[in-house]
Amino acid sequence: MQELLRRNQEFANALPARVADAVRSRFAEKKGQSPRIAFIDCSDSFSITEGKFNAGPNTLFVTRNIANIVPKASVLKAREKGLSAYLTYAVNHLKVGTIVVGGHYDCGGIKALTALGLESRGHHLEEDIAAWVSYAAKAKQALDTAISKKGLTASPEDYHKALVETNVLHSLSNVFKHPAVEKAVAAGTLKLMGVVTDFESYKVSS
User: What angle do CA 175, 73, 68 make, to 5 degrees?
Assistant: First the structure.
């Protein structure tokens, strides 16, 4: 903790100009925040959301969870109200123009999703982790079905990358079905986008 506080002191003592300007605008001019993009990212400690877009304050409205999963609307309403509230606030109050779901290769959450149902082969997932990643089980089912129908085979690495990408699309589909999001998209005031980061280069692809 002391190390974190020391790093914060260094940051506060040498605020970058764009950070200082944004802070001045928020408090001196009482403008509050007005980000134009909501970003649902993975919790991975390498997924430095603002950093990989060279973004300063008041640019991204960020939430993060394991494997950037967005459960279906009925689950958001019944059990995952924090994520539902995030989407409602982003759309209805901040009036963001874009919601982005961002995944990344070499994702531990996606590896956990791949391991679901493989306990007999020596895999073990704690109950809460298994429950969370199972929200993305339909993404895995969709990928497995597509591979089977086309008679394809995939290396473990290629399968992982494909599942990362499929999970982003699956989460985007669930974002769209959120009531506030669906209404804004229909009105033409909101767009949805999916991206994937390659940590080896930090390049982002859509």
Answer: 45
Cα four-point dihedral sign 174, 179, 180, 184: positive
Nearest to 67 by CA among 113, 30, 25: 113
Q: Computed over its alpha carbons, how large is the radius of gyration of the chain?
A: 19
CA 196 to CA 179: how far, in whole Å? 25
At residue 123, the pLDDT reads 59
- Could you give the CA distance from residue 65 to residue 109 in angstroms, rounded to a whole number? 9
Are the C-beta atoms of residues 164 and 70 closer than 8 Å to each other?
no
pLDDT of residue 142: 94
Strand partners, 63: 40
* pTM assigned to the model: 0.90
10-residue mean pLDDT profile of the chain (206 residues): values are 92 85 81 93 96 93 98 89 96 98 97 73 75 94 90 87 97 97 98 97 94
CA distance 66 to 44: 7
